[in-house]
């Protein structure tokens, strides 16, 4: 991207539009309901995240049941369905919207910039997002579980670009750096910003981006400051 303003801003969701993700106690209660050890359940969730997030393990109800049985549980369908339903609100509570997210998205749209969310996620986020105030402020949403790919696969970013009718070089990508997302975006020619808010030191993340080097911001509103100063060629 040259020094001109971008036409679109793409956002990671968890840890970027939300505060740092930290698993709440309901995950452990769900493990007990499924008849499995909570520590083993959480470890299994971590171990299988990317396969779940690309749909590679199958339908969510089946996955939850299979994981529980692998760990020694024998849950009924009613219990599995209860966990399946509860996870939507629980995952939302693990990472509530970041203060300023609505205001920043509103300001970007006032500048006639298109917006998108590009997220590695399981089934919960597509069900949760329509109920949140950021939903109508996002022009398109790309979910790994629906696309069958995950960041930094180019398809994640290019799908958003196609929906927004922009080229990668016309985009700014903002993320906390999980899933090697910033390196993936930069490889396509996108300008990138890493959100390095103080709360992210305790953020649950996978595939931390350790090779990317670039500009960091400490809060979402700083995006507006960067755009006001105009993007530098070194971006």
Write the layout of secondary structure elements.
Blueprint (H helix, E strand, L loop, with lengths): L7 E4 L14 H9 L3 H10 L1 H5 L6 H11 L6 H18 L6 H10 L3 E6 L4 H5 L11 E4 H4 L6 H11 L6 E5 L5 H7 L3 E5 L19 E3 L4 H8 L6
Parallel strand pairs: 1-2, 1-4, 2-3, 4-5, 5-6
Helix pairs in contact: 1-2, 1-5, 4-5
Task: Describe this protein's structure.
This protein is an alpha/beta fold and 235 residues long. It folds into two domains: 148 residues, Rossmann fold (3-Layer(aba) Sandwich), CATH 3.40.50; 69 residues. The protein has eleven helices and six strands. A six-stranded parallel sheet has the order 3-2-1-4-5-6, sandwiched between helices. Strand 2, helix 7 and strand 3 form a beta-alpha-beta unit. Helix 1 runs antiparallel to helix 5.
Features:
single chain, alpha/beta, Rossmann fold, 2 domains, six-stranded parallel sheet, elongated, disordered C terminus, HAD_sf
Distance separating the two termini: 8 Å
Number of helices: 11
User: Which consecutive residue ranges, at least 5 long each, have pLDDT under 50?
Assistant: 231-235
- Under CATH, the topology of the largest domain is which? Rossmann fold
Shape: elongated
- Structurally, how many domains make up the residues? 2
Radius of gyration (CA) equals 18 Å
């Amino acid at each position: 991207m040259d020094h001109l303003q971008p036409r679109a801003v793409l956002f990671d969701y968890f840890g970027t539009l939300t505060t740092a993700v930290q698993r709440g106690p309901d995950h452990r209660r769900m493990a007990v309901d499924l008849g499995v050890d909570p520590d083993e359940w959480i470890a299994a969730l971590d171990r299988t995240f990317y396969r779940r997030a690309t749909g590679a393990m199958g339908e969510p109800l089946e996955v939850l049941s299979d994981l529980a049985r692998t760990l020694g549980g024998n849950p009924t369908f009613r219990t599995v369905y209860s966990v399946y339903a509860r996870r939507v609100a629980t995952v939302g509570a693990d990472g509530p919207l970041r203060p300023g997210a609505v205001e920043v998205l509103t300001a970007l749209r006032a500048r006639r910039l298109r917006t998108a969310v590009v997220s590695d996620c399981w089934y919960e986020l597509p069900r949760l997002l329509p109920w949140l105030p950021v939903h109508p402020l996002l022009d398109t949403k790309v979910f790994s579980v629906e696309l069958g790919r995950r960041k930094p696969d180019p398809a994640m970013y290019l799908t958003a670009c196609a929906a927004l009718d922009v080229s990668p070089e016309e985009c700014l990508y903002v993320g906390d750096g999980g899933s090697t997302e910033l390196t993936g975006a930069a490889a396509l020619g996108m300008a990138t910003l890493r959100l390095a808010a103080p709360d992210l030191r305790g953020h649950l993340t996978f595939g931390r981006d350790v090779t990317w080097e670039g500009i960091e911001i400490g809060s979402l509103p700083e995006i507006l400051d960067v755009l006001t100063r105009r993007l530098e060629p070194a971006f």
